[in-house]
Amino acid sequence: MPEIPAADFVLATTLRSGQVFRWQEQQGWWYGYLGDTLLKLRQHDGRLSYETSDPAFPPHRLTRFLALDCDLAAILRDIDVDPHIHRAILRHDGLRILRQEPWECLASFILSSCNNIARLTGMLNRLARRYGAPVALNGFSGWTFPAPDRLARAPERRLRALGLGFRAPYLRAAARCWCDGAVAVDRLRQGAYEQTKAALREIEGVGDKVADCVALFAFEQMEAFPLDVWMLRVLQQQYRRRRLSPRRLHAFARRHFGRYAGYAQQYLYHDARTLAARNEGGGRGSSSLPQVSLRETIPGESIHPPSFASRCEAKQNRGVH
DNA sequence: CGCCAGGTGCTGA
DNA sequence: TCAGCACATGGC
After folding, report:
1. Cα separations (Å) of A25 from A40, A42, A101, A297, A310?
2. Which residue minimizes Cα–C1' distance to B4?
3. What is the pTM of this model?
């Protein structure tokens, strides 16, 4: 069985940190995809054992995907600028930002909007089963993620039937864009962050947040700082930046953390989510992060404004019957 | 059963 | 530049 060195790295933390959604652990092995290759990984003693469905799969492709060629310690030293990020680093050291296949990354994060990871995983797997290709490795079998031209041709109602909801037309539009060659994929890795993000935002259905995710997780733009509801809460509560619009929060975070802001984001994001999970068992709203909305909670105020999602539903219900 | 989920595009001020 | 709104659905 092939192996590669994997120092300063924690596979499980990395794969569970919300960058990828179709990897799963089974009997001590992690199964997932890199492009059309099915991979099987296990970490032990600072090394990584792996098998693949592709006999010609070169080891350096795995090294690249897992970003094992990066000096993680140096990156973490660079972003370790305050007590909050320091705590997150101590808790999740070994988490690395992957280098994903751009198309699957883009599609995944388009579908992530107003969604939770469990359901997103289901949506992606249903898409793969319906439009992808079967692939197997030892006892494990699955489907590769569909190429963009397959999804560009898929009727919107078929996509909706897979449970994509209002994201279906966004995904289709992005698939068309991708096929049309409207996206200069090769350039996105090279250029400056602003250029990459602007190019991604040209795609219909891609806004600030998804563009930052794809820039960071697929195009090695380490200063990209995806600002989702979790990070909004972190910045508002831990960093006491209330009353700032999302735009200004984003600018603050990039300034505060610098050239590896994306790494800081990922550590803070993962820390907030695992903290929330830890608090599930205990009190209800007693945990530090949940319950606060986009805009503001005034210190000492007992009433929280309604969250984004509940406001969405209130609107909907009003229109019913 | 109600709350929430790694948002985006459009509109009007 | 920013707030408010519609958009659909299921996991927990």
Report:
1. 9, 10, 20, 39, 33
2. A309
3. 0.90
